[in-house]
Design goal:
about 200 residues, alpha/beta, Rossmann fold, 7 helices
Length: about 200
């Protein structure tokens, strides 16, 4: 049985668009800066907070786990990570009592400290709850990182480091956010200078 020619062509175009976006020099420079921020956070014992909506919430949860576990090697210091997208009872309480825009900002207020890292993930760059969390993080003196698409949106100006996928296709944006965060976690396991406890 031969492959569907329409599907084959679509697969080729999809993968080519994904590959082209990942090879963007701006993305590679941004990932180097992200790695530097995370190496600093690990060496100083800072906490790294991840958050997003929809598929980006799943990415936040996935990457908090990978950074905490995948990078464990011998006696090197471990990453302190936390996905704010995982606490459904707390999210619902803040959404009910204040507004959905405050679900991450209120968690940052309670748990964030100066020098910690806030990593917002948003395909549009305009998610109100992600914006509010980054604003609160900056108020507390935290470092802010954004994984974004579609030009960066309002998030761009709230991030010390912004990695922006050069696409408005949400599937490509989310694919690349996963690839980039996996890449950074693997680099921090395999190549980055390993501080010891």
């Amino acid at each position: 049985m031969s492959a569907n020619p329409d599907l084959s062509g679509y697969v080729h175009r999809y993968l080519e668009e994904t590959r082209a976006a990942l090879q963007d020099a701006y993305i590679q420079q941004g990932l180097a800066r992200v790695a530097d921020e995370l190496v600093r956070a690990r060496s100083e014992g800072r906490t790294i907070f991840f958050f997003g909506n929809g598929g980006s919430a799943a990415t936040a949860s996935h990457m908090a786990q990978d950074l905490a576990k995948l990078t464990i090697m011998g006696d090197r210091a471990r990453f302190r990570t936390h996905s704010l997208s995982d606490h459904m009872p707390l999210i619902l309480a803040w959404a009910n009592d204040t507004s959905f825009a405050e679900i991450y900002a209120e968690q940052i207020k309670g748990q964030g400290r100066a020098g910690d890292v806030a990593i917002g993930i948003s395909g549009s760059g305009n998610s109100p709850n992600v914006l509010r969390a980054l604003e609160e993080a900056r108020t507390l003196g935290m470092r802010t990182i954004g994984f974004i698409g579609t030009g960066g949106g309002k998030m761009r100006t709230l991030c010390d480091v912004a990695v922006i996928v050069p696409s408005s296709n949400m599937q490509h944006i989310e694919d690349l956010h996963h690839i980039m965060l996996h890449l950074v976690a693997a680099y921090l396991r395999d190549e980055a200078p390993p501080p010891t406890v």
